[in-house]
């Protein structure tokens, strides 16, 4: 029996979407339909695929306000943040087309003489992997699935898409949009639900690739589920425990602005948000007993306006749910138990339990071993741990004390210092004098260590959407005896 479930707005608890979870039997049918459509879609001329993707981008452009409003309603994003996501999703179409043309175009160079008037051609062609299962997140419910769906379709794959069970309305909108712009029937199948739906889809024998954006725990679970099926490609874009290092020459107010944005933008619900800030010591602020940079960071944080999307000048909106807020509070308490001292204490807006104020905890007095254990944690929300280091080398060492490796940033230093930081911090996205959350659509996006599995997305997502086929070609059978090498 299909289970009923609903998507509840984190803004006012109203139902944004309601329906039934896709049953295991319906998942099987969706997979079979997708596999049946794979042959004709693979044979569709690539220019026609490009045109459909461009039409999808045009549809997004025409309905950008509507879908931004839906994103805001369903996952609680502020208006500017939702609009920025839509803009990124629109741009993803052209970027994916460029990536296809630059990184995955067939290469058949001119033939070369091979003796006896024969010519030899060495060629590389790219073929789709087959049926791609895309498992989307709630925090970027349009842009991040699109960053995998679009290149998968361009490469000639069919797609089965399961949006986050907290963002099903946006997922339904995406599927409807593809149908409206002329994507052939069954090329993109929508399935909805929670973990059980995902498990059933991953188990389907038709699946050739599983693309996940989610937590480390979810990635590990899928990896275990696929044990013994090495033919299924797995591309994981997972979370992080991202450090930002502030060198001692950086102006305190400048650092406070960049660090607070890195940690608290989107209510801390970006996988690239900073979780740890490590400051190189420069001067003590007697009024707080800590660094002058700490005082500036606290002032900047306490000045941030926490509220709901419809309220003017709001800078930090709600977490996705009360349970998300409860989980973050548990992390806060655990950090205090480890010996971290609150600089900006845990607070919740009395109007809503998921409207959480940014928190800052100072880990400067705990042992390095305890700090390393903080680096092993994964949390999702506006909570930042800060620490002092004696110099940039020590700060980089502390920053690298995490098994995760998604994003990192260095504020200050020179080019040599940044190159050293890149080499030693162990992250896949490393910025200089920018927030940890900055990423360019023309670059790869992926993490190292526990933050991924060597399948960067972004501009490089096209790479895991197809397979290279290499060929040695002669116009006529080779008349030379290949066994001659043994004589």
- Return Rg in Å: 25 Å
Unreliable stretches, pLDDT < 50, 5 or more residues? 283-290
The strand line-up of the biggest sheet is 14-15-16-11-10-18-19
Structural class by secondary-structure content: alpha/beta
Residue-averaged pLDDT, rounded? Answer: 94
Discrete helix count: 14
Query: What is the 3D form?
Result: globular
Distance between the termini: 69 Å
The biggest beta sheet, please? 7 strands, mixed
Strand content: 15-25%
The share of residues in helices is 25-40%
Number of strands: 23
Q: Note the quaternary state here.
A: single chain
Notable characteristics:
14 helices; 38% helix; 5-stranded parallel beta sheet; globular; 487 residues; alpha/beta; 7-stranded mixed beta sheet
SSE diagram, text form:
Blueprint: E1 4-8, E2 15-20, H1 24-43, H2 46-62, H3 64-75, H4 79-103, E3 112-113, E4 119-128, E5 131-135, H5 143-154, E6 158-162, H6 168-180, E7 188-190, H7 195-203, E8 207-213, H8 216-225, E9 233-237, E10 242-246, H9 252-264, E11 274-280, E12 284-285, E13 290-291, H10 292-302, H11 322-337, E14 341-344, E15 359-362, H12 368-375, E16 383-389, H13 392-399, E17 404-405, E18 407-411, H14 415-425, E19 429-432, E20 444-445, E21 448-449, E22 457-458, E23 466-474
Parallel strand pairs: 5-6, 5-8, 6-7, 8-9, 10-11, 10-18, 11-16, 15-16, 18-19
Antiparallel strand pairs: 1-2, 3-4, 4-23, 12-13, 14-15, 17-21, 20-22
Helix pairs in contact: 1-7, 2-4, 3-4, 3-6, 4-5, 9-10, 13-14
